[in-house]
Amino acid sequence: MKYLSLIFRNISRNRVRSILTALGTMVLVLVVTLVWSVLDFLQKATSEKNANIKAIVTEKWQFPSQMPFSYAGPLSEGGPREKGDYRVKPDDSMTWQFYGGSLVQDPKQRNPLENLFAFAMEPRKIMTMMDDLDDLPKRDPKAAEEFKKVIEKMEQTKNGLIVGKDRLKLLNKTVGDKFKIYSINYKGIDLDFEVVGVVPPGRYDGSVFMRRDYLLDGLDQYERNNKKKHPLAEKTLGLVWLRVPDQPTFQKVAKQITTNPAFSSPAVKVETSSSGIGAFLDAYRDLFWGMRYLLAPAIWVTLSLVISNAISISVRERRLEFAVLKVLGFRPGHILWMVLGEALLLGLSAGLLSAGATWYFVNKVMIGIKFPIAFFPAFFIPIDALWWGVMVGGVAALAGSLLPAWSARTVKVSDVFAKIA
């Protein structure tokens, strides 16, 4: 305890230098934490699961996928044809359609900030099938109860919209506002909407949800008015999500769907959600590689140099002190570990403080890092960041203080006192 007390007193002797070193450590740990959080989230999103698997059914030869809505019913069941085929439960499937438009009718005067891109689906499936919303009752029961009320209101309002807070702000609208959207992808199907609620803060802050039957009604109305079907009437279904219990069941359902002749024109493909996300993120592969193998190591080296510079200055100023300690009976190993202890104490405490503050500020105040990659608008700091901060700060402190500590260990008493004399 006396040895530890001596380390604390040594750090507090030059408070300005210690504070600056700690602040430098905290800033660099902050950057590493942010980078690793993004990479950790993407790694988990693209990792294959062994249970509770979500399968994605899309058109095989075209992107974006455009399947006829007649596929929706049989695909939602898993494409069964024979008695022994697996049937997906109604609550374990969800269809996606996409409706995009603008608040401005004239295409020449449109502002991208006034555009709206909505997911058209069954309201009750939003909270049970959408990633990060399906586990909301466990994470935040109060927010889940409030969102259930929003879903119920949407089920009672055919033209209802549920909008993420960021998109709602860009549209300059509030809950209860009514407005008309002039479609961009479904030419001629301009729809009136009413904002009935807001998505819980998080992943879907920039998203919009509408009822799929409202879009289908718009297509039917177009056919009645124009005496012909809309050009996209047979291409409205974007994808179907299916939830299956395990890998063998997924393989069985995938085979049922891909071998079913009812889904041959156009042909479809089935993949796990992690595989689909991984394929979609291929365009960002170089960016992720640079973040993992160039940016993070460069920050780590910089942090080690900052700590090394601060400890080296301290060691040069304290050569006489180390000589006196040796005269008093301190061994070289004692001095070595004392200097290493000072660096480690600074690195570990600054790393933990930085990681903890980052976790709280990003998750509780900012509600996610606004760093949109692909279809992920925001990222959160995992609880693992706390030991990341300790590890980064500690390892950098140890690496940066080894040479200064060895220099302090090898101080010769005779040389120091000879210079003083």
Note down, in words, how this protein is organized.
By secondary structure, the protein is of the alpha+beta class. It folds into two domains: 2-45 and 284-420, no CATH class; 62-266, no CATH class. It is built from 15 helices and nine strands. The chain has a six-stranded mixed β-barrel. Strand 5 (178-183) and strand 6 (191-198) form a beta hairpin. Helix 2 packs across helix 13 and helix 11 runs parallel beside helix 14. The two termini are 35 Å apart.
- Largest sheet features: 6 strands, mixed, barrel
Structural class: alpha+beta
- The tally of domains stands at 2
How far from one another are the termini? 35 Å
Tally the beta strands. Answer: 9
Strand order of the largest sheet: 2-3-7-4-6-5
Mean pLDDT score, rounded? 86
Morphology call:
elongated
Number of helices, where a helix is a run of at least 4 consecutive DSSP H or I residues: 15
Order of helices and strands: HHEHEEHHHEHEEEHEHEHHHHHH
Helix content class: 40-55%
